[in-house]
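> forwarded from #structure-qc
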């Protein structure tokens, strides 16, 4: 009796998860390769981080030229809470 109930719950949960997978796949698009999307996202994150690092170097140089702290330069440009 108990195993039949557990099996039915497991089947119901499996069906719920498959429905969720199907919904997400429809949202993403059937022809879209999820691995390619992830690789593209990672590539974009790397590009963003490189640009951010370059901006921080420039801000550091500007701070030196203006004899200010990096925080003060951030504040002067409205870049609060950026490290």
């Amino acid at each position: 009796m108990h195993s039949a109930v557990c099996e039915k719950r497991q089947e119901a949960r499996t069906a719920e998860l498959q429905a969720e997978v199907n919904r997400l796949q429809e949202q993403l698009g059937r022809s879209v390769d999820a691995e390619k999307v992830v690789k593209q996202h990672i590539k974009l994150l790397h590009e963003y981080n490189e640009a951010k690092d370059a901006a921080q170097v420039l801000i550091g140089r500007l701070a030196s030229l203006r004899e200010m702290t990096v925080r003060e330069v951030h504040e002067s440009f409205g870049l609060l809470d950026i490290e």
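QC bot note: The longest helix spans residues 34-66. Residues 1-32 form one domain.
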